[in-house]
Amino acid sequence: MASAEEASAxxxxxxxxxxxxxxxxxxxxxxxxxxxxxGVLSGHAQHIPEDLRKSALGATQHSLPKLIAGARxxxxxxxxxxxxxxxxxxxxxxxxxxxxxxxxxxxxxxxxHYVASGAPVARDISxxxxxRAFLTESVGPIAPTRRxxxxxxxxxxxxxxxHVDKDEFSLNILTMLEHRSSGPQRSELILxxxxxxxxxxxxxxxxxxxxxxxxxxxxxxxxxxxxxxxLVSFGYRTLGGTHE
Length: 244
Ligand SMILES: [Fe+2]
What we know:
Helices cover 34% and strands 27% of the residues. By secondary structure, the chain is of the alpha+beta class. A seven-stranded antiparallel sheet has the order 1-9-6-11-4-3-2. Strands 5-10-7-8 form a four-stranded antiparallel sheet.
């Protein structure tokens, strides 16, 4: 049975191993670890003793940020910013809201939610000077990926299981555009930072969460009847540098 010391030694060994891997191999290892963390968090390993599950989860969660160069250590929860971002104007929020509504008919199902990509307003705003300045100031050098997606969770039972994202969304600005619900039970965004309690977010319309989506496991719990959520997600890559 794995002790806490063994799990911690494993994190160290994986971290050392990652320095010898190619970028593609590192991405593969990150994917395997994220699948493992997601599996445990989703309750797919109930047959395994709890202490082993916990130490395996801890080892994967602590290892993920170590596989990625950049400003991770400064942000132990993975959260860079939460609130009404100074990097978006009210006019931009309104333009995103309008475009999100207009893109809904062409959104495609991806796993258990709907996604519309290739939207010009969202792409242009994701590349704006104020956003780039805010991110560079917060985490060091970044590269926009031109990935700007509208996300829709607007049928009962939609959501996304615990996962980490790929490089295109290593740093994610997730902005709530609308969250309608009729009862007290609502879908929520949950982050699972290593060695800490899960963090639950109920973003208000216009609020953003800026977080390291490639290294902190996250999920959206399932929507209930009469609930509808529209979000916009901008993806950036971090480029090592002064904060490394
Ligand atoms: Fe994600």
